[in-house]
Amino acid sequence: MKKVILIAFAFVLLACGAVENENGASACDNGGEQGCTLEDSSTIKQELTDQKPFEKTNITTVFTMLENKESGIVYFGFSDCPWCQEALPILKQVLEEQKLNCYYVQTRDEERNSLLKEEEKADIMEKSMDFLQRDEENNPQLYVPFVIVIEEGKVIDGHVGTVEGYDTNERKMNKEEKQQLKNIYNAMFTRLVEGKEDRK
Description:
By secondary structure, the protein is an alpha/beta fold.
């Protein structure tokens, strides 16, 4: 009887762990309470500290980019987020193929405490509202992984999570899903690259 209760409890925890946006793409609740498990965080930390193509920064740098009408790519996430763990190698590959760099804003520390102040979170959400995921009450939320493209001080594109229908609690991404996410990132960054060429 105890085994049945434990198994049922485990399924409830797994079911509560998935967060889906209106398009069905899964992401990690940046509140640190849903869908976030420690699995491959050491690999993620290594990829993010290897520098190129990532440059770790803070939210203040992002606000400065927006104010100064700069352009660039920003990745929001944290190492314990399983959706981040799935998305990051694909993001890195696309960045390297397109010879681009990306700012990395860590949203949570090792104990899952938020590294963003409420006013900072509200401000970045306001500036990227069109690309945010919404919760069950249709309120915009800052879920991760969240990648935004900034062109001349405006957020022109963004993507939350991985791909529609994928749930990291069930399995790893398959080849088709990885290619789909790669295509999403390529399309996002091509606009920035083309804009850069036009400005020359």
